[in-house]
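hi!! sorry for the late reply, been swamped w classes. u asked for the two structures so here they r. pasted raw, havent cleaned anything up. first the sequence of the first protein and right below it the tokens
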Amino acid sequence: MKNRKYDYIDRIPDRRDLGVNLGLALRRDLDYYTQTWRQLRPPDKKRNRWLYFEKGNFWAMPADAGLEMMEDGKAANFFSVKYSRWPGKSIVCRDSNRLSAKDAKELFREALTSEIIDEVWRKCQDLRVVACREPWDQEWLKVMIVSPSANELTFRSLTREKTYRFKHRPDKIPFSNGWMLDRSMMDADGRISQIMMERLKEALRG
């Protein structure tokens, strides 16, 4: 069945039969290019999971497999400037490994919910969070969370956009500083994905 919102140009499958794919698509309803993370549902792997939070857990995948896919995406020209949503606009990026201890703690508060669901991340001694603020209205935060020692990786979208309806209620899954969790798996601009790929490579390979 053809997706009503996305015209896919290419998809990068993972190399480990996880059912994860990194896609490059045109959002037809909003007229911009984006990169999507999706995972085919077991056991038949015929339908994509598109909800980030399911059955009491956030989506995650092996970090090294995610890096492989992003590098394959780079080789497939996913990061070409012609697919950039905001050519010439700067992307504000915060990386917990490049912040003071105080600022890193604040970033963790923004990127992780205070609920028990994220406790597994808070216990990681080598937790790294990379958060990219979208230009324009700056109402969206795209977040990569990784633990190299656990080889765990996740991507999530947070928003402050009050008119956006497909988000979790802050009293159910709370985040700090007014951020609310998008229910969907993450879509991101190619330049944001490229920043995340470079930081992920640094985290895993030095």
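now the second protein. again sequence first, tokens right under
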Amino acid sequence: MKSRIATIVLTQTAGQTKRTAAVLSLVFCMVLVSACDRQAGQPYVITGELTIKSDFNVDPDEINSRGGRVNLMMTVRSGPNIGDVLVQRRWIGIGSRHHFGLGKGDDIVTRIKAKTDRIYVTALLDVYDRGGERITRSYVGWTRDALPVGSDNLVLEIDNAYGQADPRKVKNFPVGGWYSPSATEEAPPPGTAQINPGARAFSGTIDVPEDLRYAFRQFVLYVGAGDDAKATREFKVRARYDTPSFPLNFSLHLNQTASKGSKVIENPKLVVAILDFDGNLATAQDQCRVSTPAPVAPGTTDIKLMIDPRKMLEFIMKRSSPAGGEKAPQKIDASKARSVTKGRIELADELKAMVSGKTTLWLTVRDAASDALVLVKKLSAEFPQDFELRETDTMSGAAMRVEGAFRIRATLTDGDPSGSDPNTIRVTSDVIPGVGATGIVIRLEKSK
């Protein structure tokens, strides 16, 4: 679905000033070198230039000038799977013309040629907001066909929005994610460390519902192993993923020790995944966590964890409220829940061809004065469509009392209702006086 682009701007607190200054300084340094990243006379596994599809309207130089940044993660693989990664590298704050070299030096070229004579290349591009705090858009690109090791002058186009491509319908789609937690990183950016992860202790897959995969890239994912799923400080090993790509193939290694970790794990442990909005494990109210139902033996490689999105989704939407969700809705007994409003959703003819099988319609009820989120309902993208909103329509399942005037917000998106997907149409109704209103008509159309 293509439509008008929704822009997210996050304000900056005074306490973030020093961190932002450091980030901008780092971005400036990286922009200076990103235009010519490879060194003459050095052998590489692959060299080339990155281009960005013009439809995406992404100009890294212009974004950098506004205080944002564009980060890049690339991998070289022997096959499309995440387990096939041979080389990976990231750049912080690339410029509009980015020439790259991956796998530098005779030793690494010789080592890779001993494993394979054909390679695949992938790229993940993240666009950060002003201040560089959060991702607003993500795009990907990959080679459809294998290339000879040592290829020069590859032109790799970033040609898909993150989550847009159907892996079943495109050629050699990168399976399992866009970077490997097990592969050693080549030439880490300034201010970051290169760490040898050590022997693998646990590995598996972490996922969220498909229609929310993009939304959860905005969060920090922690994965750990310990005796108590809630005692994060006691985890024997722990890894952090700042921009997780779901489904995520994770690995926990013995050198990824927590504060009281050990380089030897002898007994079975619980493996825990934690999605955290602010990246601070000490603030539990903005977290979703899931663990294996029972301890698993060291060396287990087929762990599967699915994160329940309901609590986190409501937190996202409250944070996206201009009022910050300051007015807390009152929980009520479900047997006392009322019908709040009834109406009809219509879609402009000019947009009907843009609706795909991945498109979803979200309806939310927000307090007219504070814009606090009260109700959420997910519907199929079928138009025209009659709707009813009840006080039981919440992601958590708890009924919420709707008091006074409110507005209905309709969001049509291929991603999540917070608006982080750039291809989103959102319409907010006029103020509705109170519970019981019927005959409401909301028309989704392009802004004029």
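hope this helps!! also noticed smth abt the second:
The radius of gyration is 24 Å.
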